[in-house]
């Protein structure tokens, strides 16, 4: 597979600045105005894209009080799946306006479809890519449906086994996706940093040969920034206008100022990676002159013996390198040498 692909005008690859997605999810709290304000805020952070989730409670689950339809613990403990998704879903009749607002800011905008009808709907909006959520990664018919649009896919691996990731990648390839990426993800809300296992990013990249990123549900931005050093080229993070306003995902979302800092820090981390140094000659540049070297530190007469008092290793670095000091002690000066002179082989009579 290819180590890079494109979303719109943006190349996604490890040698490119990280592609950063602001996930809006359910943080609109049921208000279109708030959803539009989130898009506006995302544009101000410097993110590359905003992402929605396209489903209804009835396309993602059913009304049921059976135990398996009820969340037992965690952030949403006590709620039924249908109740939670009814609150968190983004109304489909908002999508066109949200897409237009994002594009007006020059942002890419796409979504996670949760069934085939969502893919069909998003195609009417000319979504430039599709995100497959962690819990949908086992739905290979959905992946195939999205891949057959000829758009690129981003697929989260949250709770998938490697066999399931294999199946998902096969569905994306055989369906005709225009490239795809995998996102390492820990499907906990919030996810504790010690559970993040970021080294998995390197394993996914080596195993599948595609761009790899991070879908990050941890608190703060430290984990996302650290992932850049391990090769993450996509960062997806939830954003809210204010955690204090509540909402289904607010607790593990970043506020706009925090998201802006995340964008800056991830890009700075990537720029700091550079290329590996195989030849360190001249690495210090102009500052190399301030390294230590051997200097004559007292006036010395011709024929006088060099000792540890009149020759020392000091800054700056214009004299002989300090490793020669043991060889020079006990030799004699070839000429009169003034204090503060960098020692050179020509000043040593015994050479």
TrEMBL record:
Residues 293-351 form the AFP-like domain. Pfam families: NeuB, SAF. The keyword Protein biosynthesis does not apply. GO terms for molecular function: N-acetylneuraminate synthase activity; N-acylneuraminate-9-phosphate synthase activity. PROSITE patterns: AFP_LIKE. Gene3D superfamilies: Aldolase class I, Antifreeze-like/N-acetylneuraminic acid synthase C-terminal domain. One of its GO terms (biological process) is carbohydrate biosynthetic process. Keywords: Transferase. Its EC number is 2.5.1.56, 2.5.1.57. It comes from Octadecabacter arcticus 238. CDD domains: SAF_NeuB_like. The keyword Aminoacyl-tRNA synthetase does not apply. The lineage of its organism: Bacteria, Pseudomonadati, Pseudomonadota, Alphaproteobacteria, Rhodobacterales. This is Putative sialic acid synthase.
């Amino acid at each position: 597979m290819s180590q890079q692909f494109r979303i719109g005008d943006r190349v996604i690859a490890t040698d490119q600045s990280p592609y950063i997605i602001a996930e809006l999810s359910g943080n609109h709290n049921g208000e279109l105005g708030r959803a539009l304000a989130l898009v506006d805020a995302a544009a101000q952070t410097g993110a590359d894209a905003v992402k929605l989730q396209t489903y209804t409670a009835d396309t993602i689950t059913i009304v049921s009080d059976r135990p398996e339809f009820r969340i037992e613990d965690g952030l949403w403990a006590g709620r039924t799946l249908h109740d939670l998704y009814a609150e968190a879903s983004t109304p489909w009749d908002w999508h066109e306006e949200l897409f237009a607002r994002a594009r007006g800011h020059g942002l890419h905008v796409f979504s996670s479809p949760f069934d085939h009808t969502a893919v069909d709907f998003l195609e009417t909006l000319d979504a430039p890519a599709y995100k497959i959520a962690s819990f949908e990664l086992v739905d290979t018919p959905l992946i195939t449906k999205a891949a057959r649009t000829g758009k690129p896919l981003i697929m989260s691996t949250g709770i998938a086994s490697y066999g399931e990731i294999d199946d998902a990648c096969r569905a994306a390839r055989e369906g005709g996706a225009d490239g795809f990426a995998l996102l390492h993800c820990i499907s906990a809300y919030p996810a504790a940093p010690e559970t993040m296992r970021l080294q998995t990013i390197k394993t996914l990249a080596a195993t599948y040969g595609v761009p790899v990123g991070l879908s990050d549900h941890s608190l703060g931005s430290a984990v996302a920034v650290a992932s850049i050093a391990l090769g993450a080229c996509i960062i997806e993070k939830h954003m809210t206008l204010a955690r204090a306003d509540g909402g289904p995902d607010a607790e593990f979302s970043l506020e706009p100022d925090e998201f802006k800092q995340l964008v800056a820090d991830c890009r700075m981390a990537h720029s700091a990676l550079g290329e590996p140094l195989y030849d360190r000659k001249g690495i210090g540049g102009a500052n190399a002159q301030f390294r230590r070297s051997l200097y004559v530190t007292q006036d010395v007469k011709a024929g006088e013996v060099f000792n540890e008092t009149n020759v020392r290793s000091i800054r700056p670095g214009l004299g002989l390198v300090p490793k020669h000091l043991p060889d020079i002690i006990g030799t004699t000066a070839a000429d009169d040498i003034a204090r503060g002179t960098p020692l050179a082989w020509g000043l040593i009579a015994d050479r």
